[in-house]
């Protein structure tokens, strides 16, 4: 771990702070075998509920933070290391963003699977809608309803994020401090396109109803430097 990283000629100091963002997310129960296949290379296994893998889809509008303003969409699983207790975290499988600086920083510092995409986040009635397109091809559209006000601190967690890139499994401490949280059972609608990631989501059982959805109106976050959990080949 280091105190700072040089990204595109700028210094990114640890920990990275997000001072203001807003986010919407939805949890789904997904096909366990399909989830296990997507986690296999990283040496992780899905955390299950009711015999199903736990899948999260989320979109975030970053307003003020150390990596600048940008939009992001996250496709992740709750996962754990095989045979290791107390190793549960969020495995980030796919993480498109719409700005190049955060894309490079995410890949270089944490091994996040960031890539450039067109990410449109707009109000949609009593909720928010996010559409992700790559090369003008729709990958996914997710709408999350506002839900009901939840107690202060609801939706916040200190959780580690797992990433797998270039033969390295990394684990990144990640702390959320949410405000203005609204949530409800269900409350999400998914539309899939024809992209390969769309097909991965179909194999997991989507589109389907969400287990739970939430919206965070005021979100602060802190990301620490990444620690290497496993390295399967030499990095040059």
Describe the protein's architecture and organization.
By secondary structure, the protein is mainly beta. The protein has a single domain (4-231), classed as Acetoacetate decarboxylase-like (Beta Barrel). Helices cover 11% and strands 59% of the residues. It contains three helices and 18 strands. It has helices at residues 32-39, 100-110, 196-203, and strands spanning 4-7, 10-13, 16-30, 44-46, 48-49, 52-65, 70-81, 89-97, 114-116, 118-123, 127-134, 137-145, 148-149, 158-165, 168-185, 188-192, 212-223, 227-231. The strands form three sheets. The protein has a seven-stranded mixed β-barrel. The protein has a four-stranded antiparallel beta sheet with strand order 10-11-12-16, covered by helices on one side. Strand 14 (158-165) and strand 15 (168-185) form a beta hairpin. The longest helix has 11 residues, at 100-110. It is globular, with a radius of gyration of 17 Å. It starts with a strand and ends in a 5-residue tail after the last strand. The relative contact order is 0.21. The mean pLDDT is 94.
